[in-house]
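task queued by scheduler; priority normal; single chain, no ligands, no partner chains; default sampling; output format set to structure tokens
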Amino acid sequence: MKQAKKPPSKGLYLLPNLLTTSALFAGFYAITGAVNGHFEMAVIAIFIAMVLDGLDGRVARMTNTQSEFGAQYDSLADLVSFGIAPAAVAYAWGLSSLGKLGWMAAFVYATCGALRLARFNVQHNTADKRYFQGLASPAAAALLAGYIWAMEDNQISGPVAVYGLLFVTTMTGFLMVSNIRYHSFKELNFTGKVPFVFSVVVMLVLALVYVAPPLVLFAVCLLYVGSGIVLTLSLLRRRRREKKVGGSE
């Protein structure tokens, strides 16, 4: 007699979902911090959510605890932490002084974050794992939070800072829904051996972050945003060369 198949488990994997919940909590804390005027703590909470979001997926893959529920839960948490929270912090910090223009900029950013996540959920099984199509929402949130943190830490305010925030908010929003390619770094193997020079570089970066966290993190985010533009241009040139070679044969 054939044994009856066991019904699928209705439980949840604790560790990855706990990390996702922690990232969601950090995003929610950022919103409450913005409402109460604690902007430095709010942007730090966004960076903490970014770290936790990077950990939950890797932990799930390393422990073989991936699930469809976890993927959907992670996407919803990302919408709060990297879509709603940065928009709320940006609006409370400076965009509110621009009236309807600031309100629309914050809304556009949040909407682009939702569209970015929806597109990722649809294409994640067929897309090239080496690259992101459009700026990832955690990176966009980090750039926006890094700008606010740098301005807050250096006590820079006024129209210049506010209009700079307006530019960063709209730019990151449109980059999320663009076709610009960004390295996903998913091919990195954190369990393998690395050259000794790599450890020295990591040590220097950590030292710089310790000396001036807002400026260094904002600069790193800007470099990553610029790297996507350079990468996309290089990929387009490569395709054109391949077409020319194929057409000449």
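post-processing summary
- The CA atoms of residues 143 and 221 lie 5 Å apart.
- The mean pLDDT is 86.
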